[in-house]
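Subject: design request, 569 residues
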C-alpha cells in the first residue's frame, strides 16, 4: 500500500497512532462518512485532518483505516457512491474486525488503562469466510497487552478460557451432564428425536415444558410454556426447522425436552457474569415489549420502537436489538388474544416475546446486588469447574435473592462468549463498568513486559548496555526492532519488514519480557512514530537531545504519564 503510512503509537504530532492516506480529495462525502463512523464510538476515530491532498486519521484501531483507505480514496474522486463506501467500511471492515458489541468496550477500557491492543492474526486484508474454508472470526482476535502474559481475546472470550469449558458450553446436553455430575439442581430433561418420543415421555413430565435445540444460540428454536401435545409437536417442528438450517454439525442438531422452571410471569431471566471465579454482575433480561399510547396498533408500536437509535444494528456499538415481526411473535400475540392490528390502551405494556433474549429485542436491568449466596456459589462453582475465566450463566427464577428450587427456577445454560455489554451497560439500573475494569486487570495480571524506545545509536549494543545498567534483566527474553529487522535474543529473523508490522509482530510475541524499538534519529520517529501507546523507558543520545521541539513533545507525554522515564545515554 504505497499510498498509506502508519505512524504507530505516540508520535510527534499526537499521542495516538495515525494512518495517513495520500492522493485523496477533501470531499463532503468523505467527511460525512468519517463523522458517521466517529459518532458510533470514540474508539474508531479520535480525530481526522485533511492537508495537502492527504487524510490523516488518529485511531487506536489502525487496521480499519488501512483496509478502508482505497474505498475512501475512490469515494473522494466520485468513483463510487456514498452508500457503496459505507456498505464496505461499516458492513465489511468494521463488522468483521469488531463484530461483537462486547469487543468495543473491552478494547476501549484496555486502551484507557494503558494496554496495547493489536490484531493478532491479521495485519492486512480480510480473511475470507467459511465458504473459503477459513472463517471470518479470525479477523477479530486481538492481543491485549504485549509480550509475556499478554492475552488474546475475541469479544470477552480469551486465552485464559480452557478448551474443555468451551467444548462443554456450546452443547446444552453436555452442560446439563456436567451440572448434574456436580450435584447441582436442574429441572428434569431428556433428548428427543421424534414426536413419538414426546408421546412416550409426556406423562412423566410436569407441565409446562420447554423444547429447544441444544447447540444454537440467541433463542433460536426455543419454545416455552408448552402445556399440551399439539403445542409440543409444533415446538418440535420449529426446533427441527432451526437445526436443519445451514450447515449444522451433528452436536447442534439435538433437541431437548425439559420441565420449565418457574420464573418471572413475563418470561424474564437473568444473565450472571463470572470473571476469574467471582460473580461480578447480574442482569435481568426482560422480553421485548411495547407500551400502548391508545392510538397506535402493535405493529406501529414495534416499528416506532425499532427507530430507537440504540436498536440500529448498523452501529457496531448498539446496545439493543430490533424487534423482528415473525411467526413466533405473531403466535405469542395470538395466545394473548391479540394481533398486530390490536390497539393497546395508553400506558399498557404488551409483551411481544416470551423469550428474554437480547437478540430478539429484549431489554436489561441490573440486579447484581440482589443475588442470593446460594446462586452466587452455584455460578462460581460452574465457572471454576469448567476452568473458564469469563462465563455467562443464564438462570430463570421468580426471585434471584432466594435459592434455586423447583418452585424458584433453574439454570438455563452457560456461555463462554457472552455478550457482556448487557451486563456492563444495562438499560435500567447501575452500570457495571467496575466489572469491566476488573476483567481487564485480572486478564492482564502479570503482563509487565518492558516497552523501551531508543533514539540515536551508541557504540555499545543497546540490549547489552541496558543489561549492564540493570534496566533489563540478565536472563530476560528480549525482542528488538532495528533497521527493518526483528531480532529476538540476538537472533535475526525478518530482515526487510515495514516498521509498523515489525512493531506489531513484537507486541503479539508472548515470549518477550522486554521489547526494544531502536530508531536512527528524530526523522525516523517523525516518519514512523515511537511505536507504543505508552513507554516505560525513552532513551535518547546526547546528539538527539538537541532537538528541542521533539524533547518538548516527549516531556509533555511524560507529564501525562504516557512515558514513565526519559534517560540520556
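Subject: RE: design request

Done. Sequence follows.
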Amino acid at each position: 500500500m504505497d499510498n498509506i503510512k502508519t505512524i504507530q503509537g505516540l508520535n510527534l504530532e499526537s499521542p495516538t497512532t495515525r494512518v495517513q492516506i495520500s492522493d485523496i480529495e477533501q470531499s463532503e462525502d468523505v467527511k460525512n462518512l468519517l463523522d458517521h463512523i466517529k459518532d458510533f464510538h470514540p474508539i474508531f476515530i479520535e480525530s481526522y485532518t485533511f492537508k495537502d491532498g492527504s487524510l490523516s486519521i488518529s485511531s487506536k484501531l489502525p487496521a480499519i483505516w488501512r483496509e478502508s483507505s482505497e474505498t475512501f480514496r475512490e469515494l473522494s474522486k466520485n468513483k463510487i457512491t456514498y452508500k457503496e463506501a459505507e456498505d464496505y467500511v461499516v458492513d465489511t471492515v468494521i463488522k468483521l474486525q469488531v463484530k461483537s458489541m462486547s469487543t468495543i468496550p473491552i478494547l476501549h477500557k484496555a486502551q484507557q488503562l494503558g494496554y496495547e491492543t493489536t490484531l493478532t492474526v491479521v495485519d492486512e486484508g480480510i480473511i475470507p469466510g467459511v465458504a473459503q474454508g477459513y472463517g471470518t472470526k479470525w479477523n477479530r482476535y486481538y492481543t491485549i497487552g504485549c509480550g509475556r502474559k499478554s492475552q488474546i481475546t475475541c469479544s470477552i472470550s480469551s486465552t485464559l478460557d480452557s478448551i474443555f469449558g468451551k467444548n462443554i458450553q456450546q452443547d446444552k446436553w453436555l452442560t446439563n451432564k456436567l451440572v448434574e455430575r456436580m450435584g447441582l439442581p436442574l429441572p428434569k430433561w431428556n433428548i428427543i428425536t421424534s414426536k413419538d418420543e414426546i408421546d412416550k415421555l409426556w406423562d412423566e413430565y410436569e407441565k409446562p415444558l420447554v423444547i429447544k435445540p441444544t447447540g444454537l444460540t440467541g433463542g433460536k428454536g426455543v419454545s416455552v410454556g408448552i402445556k399440551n401435545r399439539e403445542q409440543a409437536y409444533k415446538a418440535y417442528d420449529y426446533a427441527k426447522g432451526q437445526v436443519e438450517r445451514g450447515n449444522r454439525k451433528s452436536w447442534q442438531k439435538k433437541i431437548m425436552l425439559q420441565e420449565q422452571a418457574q420464573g418471572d410471569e413475563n418470561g424474564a431471566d437473568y444473565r450472571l457474569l463470572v470473571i476469574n471465579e467471582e460473580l461480578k454482575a447480574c442482569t435481568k433480561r426482560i422480553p421485548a415489549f411495547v407500551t400502548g399510547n391508545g392510538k397506535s396498533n402493535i405493529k406501529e408500536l414495534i416499528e416506532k420502537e425499532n427507530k430507537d437509535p440504540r436498536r440500529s444494528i448498523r452501529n457496531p456499538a448498539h446496545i439493543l436489538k430490533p424487534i423482528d415481526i415473525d411467526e413466533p411473535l405473531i403466535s405469542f400475540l395470538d395466545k394473548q388474544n391479540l394481533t398486530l392490528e390490536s390497539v393497546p390502551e395508553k400506558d399498557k405494556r404488551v409483551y411481544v416475546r416470551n423469550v428474554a433474549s437480547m437478540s430478539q429485542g429484549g431489554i436489561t436491568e441490573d440486579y447484581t446486588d440482589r443475588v442470593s449466596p446460594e446462586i452466587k456459589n452455584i455460578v462460581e462453582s460452574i465457572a471454576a469447574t469448567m476452568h473458564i475465566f469469563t462465563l455467562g450463566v443464564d438462570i430463570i427464577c421468580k426471585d434471584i435473592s432466594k435459592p434455586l428450587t423447583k418452585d424458584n427456577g433453574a439454570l438455563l445454560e452457560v456461555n463462554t462468549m457472552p455478550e457482556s455489554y448487557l451486563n456492563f451497560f444495562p438499560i435500567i439500573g447501575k452500570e457495571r463498568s467496575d466489572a469491566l475494569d476488573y476483567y481487564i486487570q485480572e486478564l492482564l495480571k502479570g503482563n509487565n513486559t518492558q516497552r523501551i524506545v531508543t533514539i540515536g545509536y551508541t557504540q555499545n549494543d543497546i540490549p547489552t548496555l541496558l543489561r549492564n545498567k540493570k534496566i533489563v534483566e540478565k536472563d530476560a527474553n528480549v525482542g528488538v526492532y532495528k533497521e527493518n529487522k526483528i531480532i529476538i535474543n540476538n537472533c535475526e529473523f525478518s530482515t526487510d519488514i515495514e516498521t509498523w508490522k515489525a512493531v506489531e509482530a513484537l507486541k503479539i510475541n508472548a515470549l518477550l519480557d522486554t521489547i526494544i524499538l531502536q530508531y536512527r534519529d528524530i526523522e525516523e520517529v517523525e516518519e514512523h512514530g515511537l511505536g507504543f501507546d505508552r513507554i516505560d523507558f525513552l532513551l535518547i543520545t546526547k546528539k538527539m537531545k538537541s532537538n528541542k521541539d521533539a524533547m518538548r513533545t516527549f516531556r509533555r507525554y511524560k507529564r501525562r504519564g504516557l512515558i514513565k522515564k526519559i534517560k540520556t545515554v
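The mean pLDDT is 93.
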